[in-house]
Amino acid sequence: MAGLAFIERRAEGAPAGLLVLHHGRGTDEHDLLALGDALDPGRRLHLVLPRAPLRLGASPGWHWYLVPRVGYPDPDSFNAARAQLAALHDELWRSTGIGPERTVLGGFSMGGVMSYALALDAQRPAPAGVLAFSGFIPAVEGWQPSLADRPSLRVLIAHGRSDPVIGIAFARRARDTLSVAGLEVDYHEFAGAPLHTPDANTVRISLGTEVSAPA
């Protein structure tokens, strides 16, 4: 299994933590670089942006998994991407010396789905936090989110109320699922024109803050 390609933006000085951002469907590892800068303008974090493993015929960009129906990833491609991301995260923790307890996993759309998948996997260590932009907790045969064993995991959810691709109901369902399990959830809905985009200015305005470095 080949390793995933990725790019890095190093912290200015000793990194306070690790931020891994997973891009959305049909783009590449450069797509969320501006979002990383918006979330961490002080460059306190070591930022890593992986590229998804799949090219799909004439479809542009890269994909994490096949999509038979929104909310329900294809199990085979989902599990393959999950294994590749797990290997990359393990290597990053080894090479940087920054452990999962000081790592935030984030992503937009399909990348947000993969962030949930790795952060809520019973076979994986819990990171410090998850940033889910316009995504959802996936429903996949053979995989279930593990919530009771990671009570200190913090989750930030931001989603457009009029998103035409991934409806706001997915964000509300994730919020309710995580909150009922006792996890700390910071939830943001934003209004405006129907958009499904990781626009850095929209994120900055809707959140009004930068990512907190893991303690």
Structure described in brief:
This protein is α/β, with parallel strands linked by helices and 215 residues long.
Strand order of the largest sheet: 1-3-2-4-5-6-7
Portion in helices = 25-40%
- Please summarize the sheet with the most strands: 7 strands, mixed
Whole-angstrom Rg: 16 Å
Low-confidence segments, ≥5 residues, pLDDT <50? Answer: 209-215
Task: Indicate the mean pLDDT.
Answer: 90
General description of the model:
The chain is of the alpha/beta class and 215 residues long. It is globular and about 40 Å long.
Give keywords.
globular, 5 helices, seven-stranded mixed beta sheet, alpha/beta, 215 residues
Write the topology of this structure.
Blueprint (H helix, E strand, L loop, with lengths): L5 E4 L7 E6 L10 H7 L5 E6 L24 H22 L6 E6 L1 H10 L9 E5 L20 E7 L7 H13 L3 E7 L9 H8 L8
Parallel strand pairs: 2-3, 2-4, 4-5, 5-6, 6-7
Antiparallel strand pairs: 1-3
Helix pairs in contact: 1-5
